[in-house]
Amino acid sequence: MANAVSGMAVHDDCKLKFLELKAKRTYRFIVFKIEEKQKQVVVEKVGEPTQSYEDFTASLPADECRYAVYDFDFVTEENCQKSRIFFIACYLFFAEVA
Protein backbone atom coordinates (compact mmCIF):
# COMPACT_ATOMS: atom_id res chain seq x y z
CA MET A 1 0.00 0.00 0.00
CA ALA A 2 1.49 3.33 -1.08
CA ASN A 3 1.40 6.27 1.28
CA ALA A 4 1.31 9.93 0.33
CA VAL A 5 2.60 12.95 2.20
CA SER A 6 -1.02 13.89 2.92
CA GLY A 7 -1.42 10.82 5.10
CA MET A 8 -3.90 9.28 2.67
CA ALA A 9 -2.80 5.81 1.54
CA VAL A 10 -3.41 4.44 -1.96
CA HIS A 11 -4.40 0.79 -2.13
CA ASP A 12 -2.11 -1.34 -4.34
CA ASP A 13 -5.10 -2.36 -6.48
CA CYS A 14 -5.40 1.26 -7.72
CA LYS A 15 -1.98 1.15 -9.35
CA LEU A 16 -2.45 -2.39 -10.68
CA LYS A 17 -5.80 -1.58 -12.31
CA PHE A 18 -4.39 1.61 -13.83
CA LEU A 19 -1.41 -0.26 -15.32
CA GLU A 20 -3.81 -2.85 -16.79
CA LEU A 21 -5.87 -0.06 -18.37
CA LYS A 22 -2.77 1.67 -19.72
CA ALA A 23 -0.83 -1.33 -21.02
CA LYS A 24 -3.47 -3.92 -21.84
CA ARG A 25 -6.56 -1.74 -22.31
CA THR A 26 -8.41 -4.12 -20.02
CA TYR A 27 -10.86 -1.42 -18.87
CA ARG A 28 -12.58 1.62 -20.38
CA PHE A 29 -12.56 3.46 -17.05
CA ILE A 30 -11.70 3.13 -13.37
CA VAL A 31 -13.53 4.98 -10.61
CA PHE A 32 -11.68 5.59 -7.35
CA LYS A 33 -13.08 6.69 -4.01
CA ILE A 34 -11.65 7.70 -0.66
CA GLU A 35 -12.45 5.35 2.20
CA GLU A 36 -12.53 7.79 5.11
CA LYS A 37 -12.42 5.16 7.87
CA GLN A 38 -9.42 3.37 6.34
CA LYS A 39 -7.84 6.64 5.16
CA GLN A 40 -7.05 5.25 1.73
CA VAL A 41 -7.98 5.54 -1.93
CA VAL A 42 -9.57 2.36 -3.34
CA VAL A 43 -10.99 1.14 -6.64
CA GLU A 44 -14.77 1.41 -6.57
CA LYS A 45 -15.67 0.33 -10.10
CA VAL A 46 -14.09 -0.66 -13.39
CA GLY A 47 -15.75 -0.39 -16.78
CA GLU A 48 -15.46 -3.03 -19.46
CA PRO A 49 -13.74 -1.98 -22.73
CA THR A 50 -17.10 -2.02 -24.54
CA GLN A 51 -18.69 0.50 -22.18
CA SER A 52 -19.28 4.10 -23.28
CA TYR A 53 -18.70 7.52 -21.76
CA GLU A 54 -22.40 7.56 -20.89
CA ASP A 55 -21.91 4.32 -18.93
CA PHE A 56 -19.00 5.97 -17.14
CA THR A 57 -20.94 9.09 -16.16
CA ALA A 58 -23.90 6.96 -15.05
CA SER A 59 -21.60 5.05 -12.69
CA LEU A 60 -20.66 8.21 -10.78
CA PRO A 61 -22.73 8.95 -7.67
CA ALA A 62 -24.68 12.20 -7.72
CA ASP A 63 -23.91 13.11 -4.11
CA GLU A 64 -20.30 12.03 -3.48
CA CYS A 65 -16.85 13.01 -4.77
CA ARG A 66 -14.91 10.58 -6.96
CA TYR A 67 -11.71 10.39 -9.00
CA ALA A 68 -11.45 8.45 -12.23
CA VAL A 69 -9.39 7.64 -15.29
CA TYR A 70 -11.06 7.24 -18.68
CA ASP A 71 -9.52 5.70 -21.81
CA PHE A 72 -10.86 7.78 -24.71
CA ASP A 73 -10.63 6.41 -28.27
CA PHE A 74 -10.89 8.73 -31.26
CA VAL A 75 -9.99 9.05 -34.93
CA THR A 76 -7.91 12.00 -36.15
CA GLU A 77 -8.57 14.07 -39.27
CA GLU A 78 -5.86 11.92 -40.94
CA ASN A 79 -8.00 8.84 -40.13
CA CYS A 80 -5.58 7.52 -37.49
CA GLN A 81 -6.96 5.61 -34.51
CA LYS A 82 -5.75 7.23 -31.26
CA SER A 83 -6.33 6.82 -27.55
CA ARG A 84 -5.80 9.18 -24.61
CA ILE A 85 -6.19 8.53 -20.90
CA PHE A 86 -7.84 11.33 -18.93
CA PHE A 87 -7.75 11.85 -15.17
CA ILE A 88 -11.08 13.20 -13.92
CA ALA A 89 -11.85 14.65 -10.51
CA CYS A 90 -15.55 14.88 -9.64
CA TYR A 91 -16.25 17.37 -6.90
CA LEU A 92 -19.46 18.57 -5.33
CA PHE A 93 -20.18 22.18 -4.61
CA PHE A 94 -22.95 23.02 -2.21
CA ALA A 95 -24.68 26.34 -2.57
CA GLU A 96 -26.49 27.90 0.32
CA VAL A 97 -30.17 28.31 -0.48
CA ALA A 98 -31.68 31.52 0.83
TrEMBL record:
Top-level lineage group: Eukaryota
UniProt xrefs under InterPro entries: ADF-H, ADF-H/Gelsolin-like_dom_sf, ADF/Cofilin
Residue span(s) of domain ADF-H: 7-98
UniProt GO BP: actin filament depolymerization
Residue spans crossing the bilayer: none
Keyword field: Actin-binding
UniProt keyword Membrane, yes or no: no
Cytoplasm in keyword set: no
Molecular-function GO terms, alphabetical: actin binding
GO terms for cellular component: actin cytoskeleton
Family: Belongs to the actin-binding proteins ADF family.
PANTHER family: COFILIN-RELATED
Descriptive protein name: ADF-H domain-containing protein
